[in-house]
Amino acid sequence: SSGINAEWPLRPGYKPQYLRGFIYLARLTDSKEEKRKLLLSVVYLVPRILQTLEQRGQTYKSIEAVQFSAMDKLLSIVEKDEIQTFCKRLSALLSKSPDSGNRKLLELQVETSKKCVVVEASNGQSLTTLGDSLLTLYEMTDSKTLLKESEQCFRAAIQVEGKAIKSETVPEQVKEMQWYKEKTGVKSPPAAAGKGARGGPAKRGAPAARGAAKGGAARGGAARGGAAAGKGAARGRGGARGAAA
């Protein structure tokens, strides 16, 4: 059966490759339940292995990195109501890691915190953690976008103070961030209509002009008909005077 037996011996020589084998098997299986068991086995076993290590050297960091990978993959298969719990655990582990300055771990911290914010946009702790991670990553990359998003997160965290964590209200600063729009499917509002659109009403007035033209033509026809009738009457009167003579 899948999973790790609690009676398995923990040897100091335990290699990270053994743990990665569980992640590999989880990737191969099509069963969601089997994936969950295999990944959770890694999550539960790693802390026990780390306790046997006397120094936080390269071996410690390698084994810890396997745990981070397993938890990150778990986030894609757990139920929605479990996401926040796993996000918080992974975020806490990443922040306390002796290798927390590693760029890859920082990027994982950012992605984990984003998932927290998507689930609970009014969670001040998640917003602060995300803002702090973005700021640290900015110091490595000098990306102005990261700096701006970091500031937006901190401002949003201040805005939600005193509000319920489960509130469905999303802070405006969060709505403005591009990654949030992409993850939630929120579309930007359409651009304002241009001058062409404002000129539309003039086109709607065109039928009236055509009606006026038609009316003018009718009136012109009537005038021409009246003139013809007048001429006919004159000829009739001339004929009558000739007959009298």
Give the helices and strands, then pairings:
Blueprint lengths: L15 H13 L3 H19 L7 H17 L5 H17 L6 H17 L4 H18 L2 H16 L12 H4 L2 H7 L10 H4 L1 H5 L1 H39 L1
Helix pairs in contact: 1-2, 1-3, 2-3, 3-4, 4-5, 5-6, 6-7
Describe the structure concisely.
Helices cover 72% and strands 0% of the residues.
Description:
The protein is mainly alpha-helical. It has helices spanning 16-28, 32-50, 58-74, 80-96, 103-119, 124-141, 144-159, 172-175, 178-184, 195-198, 200-204, 206-244. Helix 1 runs parallel beside helix 3 and helix 5 packs antiparallel against helix 6 (124-141).
In the predicted model, the low-confidence regions spanning at least 5 consecutive residues are: 1-10, 194-245
What is the chain-wise order of helices and strands? HHHHHHHHHHHH
How large is the share of residues in beta strands?
Answer: under 5%
How much is the radius of gyration in Å?
39 Å
**Proportion of helical residues:** over 70%
Question: Biggest β-sheet, characterized?
Answer: none
Structural class: mainly alpha
What's the total helix number?
12
The counted number of beta strands is 0
What would the principal axes of the Cα set say about the shape? Answer: globular
Distance between the termini: 135 Å
Key terms:
disordered C terminus; disordered N terminus; globular; mainly alpha; 245 residues
